[in-house]
Write a structure and sequence with these properties.
Blueprint lengths: L2 H6 L6 H45 L10 H26 L4 H32 L8 H27 L6 H29 L3 H7 L2 H20 L3
Amino acid sequence: MTKGELLIEDPPPSDDESESGEMIDETTTEISAVFRRKDVRLMVSLLVAVSFVAYFFAVNPSLWNNIFVYHPIFMAIAFMVALPELLCTVGDLHTRRVPFRDALEAHRHRAMVFKMLNVVGIVIIEWCKYSRSKVHFKSWHGILGVVCEVSQVLEILVGFFMQCRSAGRCCCTSISRICRSLHRFLALVVVLSGLASMFLGMFTHFAVATYGALGVRLFFAITPIVLTVWGFFSTH
């Protein structure tokens, strides 16, 4: 090797550069593993939700034109697919593996999807109750469902206030801290009351008549809980 070639040859990497490169590789590998876990969990959620709908119409093919049946369908999609996806974004906000702004935007979008599915499900059941002059909220399934929906409305209001604060319209630190705590508490109430209502919903007279076997009903009663927990911890 000539003297000129020695002068233009790249210097060997320092120890700091080598360690930095290894850390970047490890972080990239870890993020890729997280995204793979998310994809697997989403596919399982979709498979369970499709199975819920397919089994229902396979056993009850004549009920597709009964608007009432779309209440459990929309609620199942909300709690089997949308809620685990929403809790994935909560995990992203906590772990900071995803840029905070991107995680927050994804959280807002998925929260909107979850709440819209709930709204459609509630409108359907309330319309059916009203049109048939049936008593509202006479079971724990219905009562917990109302608690879930009211908590979601309050959660939206608190979230909107927090968004206004972040935009600079409110700057009181103590109020901001209270709002964050209240938002988390309401979110916990939404998840717990919603999952409890979903669980009890598989033991109503309608579920017994349409899904029949206890094993099938237990499976669809428990899977929303499993998928929700999986969704939250899939990013950790």
